[in-house]
Design brief:
The complex is a heterodimer of chains A (about 325) and B (about 290).
Chain A: H1 2-29, H2 35-59, H3 69-87, H4 91-113, H5 118-138, H6 140-143, E1 149-150, H7 160-183, H8 185-195, H9 197-202, H10 207-233, E2 235-236, H11 243-256, H12 263-277, H13 284-299, H14 303-319
Antiparallel strand pairs in A: 1-2
Helix pairs in contact in A: 1-7, 2-7, 2-10, 2-11, 2-12, 3-4, 3-5, 3-10, 4-10, 7-8, 7-10, 8-10, 11-12, 11-14
Chain B: H1 2-32, H2 39-56, H3 61-84, H4 92-113, E1 127-130, E2 133-136, H5 137-159, H6 161-171, H7 173-178, H8 183-205, H9 216-230, H10 235-255, H11 263-275
Antiparallel strand pairs in B: 1-2
Helix pairs in contact in B: 1-5, 1-6, 1-8, 1-9, 1-10, 2-3, 2-4, 2-8, 2-9, 3-8, 5-6, 5-8, 9-10, 9-11
The chains are: A mainly alpha (about 325), B mainly alpha (about 290).
């Protein structure tokens, strides 16, 4: 089991290295002409990375495809903006309240939805997303309609650079939280549901309760992504709750590598940035997006990081035949 | 009272459309265990095909109908071959995700080609008066056409060799292949039938509204809601569920509000799931 320890340290090292790199990036970007724009793009990309990590917890590690994350991010963004602007709660208090509120709404959504399984859970959550979208679209007193709800951030967070670091800090926090959950005993029950739901029921793990727990935590993080979105964009309109965002978050997670810690982050940041780069292609970008999704799910069902991990395990296995091959968890 | 009956007829007509879509979905689910989430987009492609043939090429509506059905059936076969067959045996959630990829690709491709909404003229532009109220002929055509298709499908599955093979595969895939039924051919056939059904629904419904690249989204969600409400893989459930949803939606729009048109279906789903998770006619848990 020694090599697992080494692998963990290696992963930690890579994580710290990429965090340092991300922290140093603004210094470089501020010097170039297009850098300021790129910094904003990267900030948004990191927000979607937080959302992708939250989806990964329920999809990757518990095996339940939720398609309501666009709505949950939207609820987070709106509750943040409304709490600060209309209710007049302090920004720093509204932030955790937003996460709790989104988690609570997620809990309520989860109660009926987890009566279904597999693709039907995905459809029920997608239905919720449509309901949320229709609600925000029609209740203009709540959402502000097309003009949306404007939002003033505290002066500390006004500049582009501080926003970047603020989001980066929360992304790092999210990654650490998800990792700790997965390594904990609760995470082990999540993974057992992913591998075999009936078997884990048989050994006394309540699938319903654990799924609900995983989903509530996931919604907490999605609400955080929403609060970050409101902070960075300074204005929220109802288009944020669209289920297209749910699809996008799903694609980021899958292409980066579902059920890996780094996958969703790499997928979200990489793809969001790439899509922004090739803006000139307009709508046709997403044709490629769809085809890519099909190819990935057929040929690399565990995405980029899954592919890399497989390669690494293969190399390890070749080098030392003493270590028994490690079974993959779930599929 | 006549207002109520009018709304009821509109509901039945909506339900006919939902029923045809849900039948296709439930066939594919019952036989192949695939959640074909891009089915609504196949419908959308059918509507655009009708636009291409009857408006751009000037072909007669009734000639365009079989052409659209055949092309859609071929597209269905292609989809099964290229997207779903490589995924056979993988977890059902992977198939569902592939369907989302397909849906994104189709929708954005169509939107990239033709962004604006288009319309197809109604083939029989007349209204008849029934019980003192006027009713568009096209609505009656939709209702009767759907019934005809339903009868033909029942006959096909119960009375022909291929249909019996389909039913055998729905009951037990391994057993069916043991007695010499070609699984690949039946899969392709199932997709062809389901897509042709979507084609009929699209061609009949298209003249009654605008054709947009997004039109498949609410439709597929409702069709799935019907499949879940009716019971997974149950044809009876799809038929009754389709009509029930259509009527509820039409009455909801008439008596409550049209802004929440798409919400009624989902509210119904949540209520039914809360009390009967296996659906109205199903034994399998959703």
């Amino acid at each position: 089991m020694k090599w697992i320890k080494e692998k963990l340290n290696f992963n930690l090292l890579v994580g710290l290295a990429s965090l340092t790199l991300a922290a140093l990036l603004p210094l470089l970007l501020q010097r170039t002409s297009g850098g300021k724009y790129n910094m904003i793009v990267l900030t948004y990309a990191m927000i979607w990375a937080v959302a992708a990590c939250s989806l990964n917890l329920i999809l990757g590690f518990t095996g339940q495809a939720c398609l309501a994350h666009g709505a949950l991010v939207g609820i987070g963004a709106y509750s943040m903006a409304i709490m600060v602007e209309r209710v007049g709660i302090n920004y720093w208090l509204a932030f955790p309240l937003t996460c709790l509120l989104t988690a609570f709404i997620g809990f309520l959504i989860g109660l009926p939805s987890f009566r279904t399984r597999g693709p039907y859970f995905a459809i029920v959550t997608l239905c919720f997303n449509v309901i949320v979208y229709a609600t925000f679209e029609n209740w203009t007193w709540l959402s502000g309609g097309l003009a949306g709800q404007s939002f003033e951030v505290p002066p500390v967070l006004a500049s582009r650079t501080t926003k970047y670091y603020f989001v980066l800090a929360f992304l790092a926090l999210t990654v650490v939280v998800v990792r700790q959950i997965i390594k904990s005993i609760v995470g082990a029950s999540f993974l057992s549901i992913l591998s075999n739901e009936s078997l884990s029921e048989a050994v006394g793990i309540s699938a319903f309760r654990n799924k609900l727990l995983s989903f509530t935590v996931s919604c907490f993080l999605a609400g955080m992504a929403g609060a970050l979105f409101a902070t960075v964009s300074g204005r929220v309109d109802y288009s944020i709750t669209s289920f297209l965002h749910s699809f996008n978050i799903l694609v980021y997670t899958l292409i980066g590598g579902v059920a890996t810690i780094a996958g969703p982050v790499i997928g979200a940041v990489g793809l969001y940035y790439l899509l922004d780069r090739i803006k000139g292609f307009g709508e046709f970008r997403y044709v490629g997006f769809g085809v890519l999704l099909i190819l990935i799910i057929i040929f690399f069902p565990r995405g980029l990081m899954g592919g890399i991990n497989q390669l690494r395990d293969w190399v390890k296995e070749k080098r030392s035949t003493k270590v028994a091959p490690q079974g993959e968890v779930g599929s | 009272m006549s207002f109520f009956i009018n709304q009821l007829i509109i509901g039945i007509q909506l339900g006919s459309q939902y029923m045809m879509m849900a039948l296709g979905l439930t066939l594919i689910f019952g036989i192949l265990d695939i959640s074909h989430f891009a089915h609504g987009h196949i419908y959308m492609v059918g509507a655009y095909l009708l636009y291409t043939f009857s408006v751009l090429a000037g072909i007669n509506y009734w000639v365009a109908l079989p052409i659209c059905m055949i092309i859609l059936a071929l597209i269905g076969v292609l989809v099964e071959r290229l997207v779903y067959r490589p995924l056979r045996g993988s977890p059902s959630i992977n198939t569902f995700i592939a369907a989302i990829g397909l849906l994104l690709a189709i929708e954005t491709l169509v939107r990239g080609i033709k962004k604006d909404a288009v319309r197809v003229p109604v083939p029989v532009d007349r209204s008849v008066s029934v019980l003192g109220m006027s009713l568009e002929v096209q609505r009656i055509i939709v209702i009767l056409g759907a019934l005809l298709i339903l009868l033909m499908l029942q006959w096909f599955i119960k009375r022909t060799r291929l249909g019996i093979a389909i039913e055998a595969m729905a009951q037990d895939r391994e057993g069916a292949s043991l007695v010499g039924i070609n699984v690949n051919r039946i899969s392709a056939l199932t997709f062809a039938i389901a897509s042709a059904l979507a084609g009929v629904a699209a061609v009949l419904m298209a003249p009654l509204g605008a054709i947009t690249p997004e039109m498949g989204n609410p439709l597929i969600l409702k069709a799935f809601v019907i499949v879940v409400i009716g019971g997974l893989g149950s044809m009876k459930g799809a038929i009754f569920g389709g009509y029930i949803l259509g009527v509820i939606e039409a009455l909801g729009v008439a008596y409550i509000s049209s802004t929440y048109k798409d919400v009624f279906a989902f509210a119904l789903l949540i209520v039914i799931l809360a009390f009967r998770p296996t659906g109205l006619f199903g034994e399998r848990a959703a």
